[in-house]
Structure of 4-hydroxy-3-methylbut-2-enyl diphosphate reductase:
Amino acid sequence: MSKDTYFKNGFKSVREEVKQDMEQQFVSETVGELKSNNNIIFRDNVEVHLAKDFGFCWGVERSIAMAYEARSHFPSKKLHITNELIHNPQVNGKLQDMDVNFIPKTGGLDGGKDFSGVGDGDVVILPAFGASIDEMELFDSKNVEIVDTTCPWVSKVWNTVDMHQRKGLTSIIHGKYGHEETVATASFCETYLIVKNMEEAEYVARYIKGEGDRGEFMEKFKMAMSDDFDPDKHLEKLGLANQTTMYKKETRAIGQLFQKAQLSKYGPTDVASHYMEFDTICDATQERQDAIHDLVSTRSSLNLDFILVIGGWDSSNTQHLLEIPLNAGLKAYHINEGGCISPDNKITHRAMDGEIVTEEFMGKGKVVMGVTSGASTPDRAVQDALDRVFLLKKINPDLQ
Ligand code: SF4
């Protein structure tokens, strides 16, 4: 793409104005108070413990700033985004208010979209989790300007899978095959297989060791493999990559599993040419996961009743933050905005299996809660949720 129509560093001339706008929109007094009080506050009979690391990561802030800057830099042009900029309803709503068009999805799990509304001279913003090579080629063929907000951590994964391909390895991508970031990563690979969890990885490892059924394998991974994938040929030399927001411990365990499988098949002398791994999980994801682990580990000393996890329901990194307390047997609720907590003491939340459920929320008397938020969640959303919790405790006589 020509340098004149491809922007990947934002627009300096409008940076200060956008910075102020973002501060007004996202900064939270309550979160500020928590931070200056050792991450603890007590209000209306609710004790809140905020995770040490939470909320907006560097890549998301950068992506939002670049999108807002694009709007100011191209005030009269038609702007499109290939997908949600990040998985956050408030940020995406704000972009719609700024007259930024979200390219509609055509359904299906392959990331299909309807680009017919993108016309000559328009501006297209690529989100933090990037765009596929097919999309980039399409834009190249149209006369559009590109504002690329892809997070450098995501680009790092692309570089890794590119290196796999050049070395003749099959890229095993630990990710979700319908997720935009994984769709983009897979588009950089000639040969790939996507495994979403340990169960699927164990299935593949058994196949490597000669214990699988080819027909069943092909059926199981039909949506998650490159077109020409042949498990009898393409599992010989493997490289591991991941969707940046996956659960890091699981990526590690999957890596060890494949390394062991290759070791048992090819022996210690040859294993290095049959398995390759680089750490491509971004620090932000890891820090948020560690912080929630820390919070969960103090559950007994703090008498934690539950953990509130705030973030978009489609946000993969937020979903993993929910899994940590739930897997440790601690009650936790994943909500996507404060509005999920209603005045009749009900909470609407996303369960670990993805179902959205509504149930009774808090009990009587003092409540001790932990709180965290995903990497695409502004502090203001945390404040909205906490304000609802405080208000509920204050005004509902059944909860006193
Ligand atoms: S979570 Fe990591 S990879 Fe994703 S936008 Fe943030 S810094 Fe980038």
Remarks:
- The CA atoms of residues 129 and 181 lie 5 Å apart.
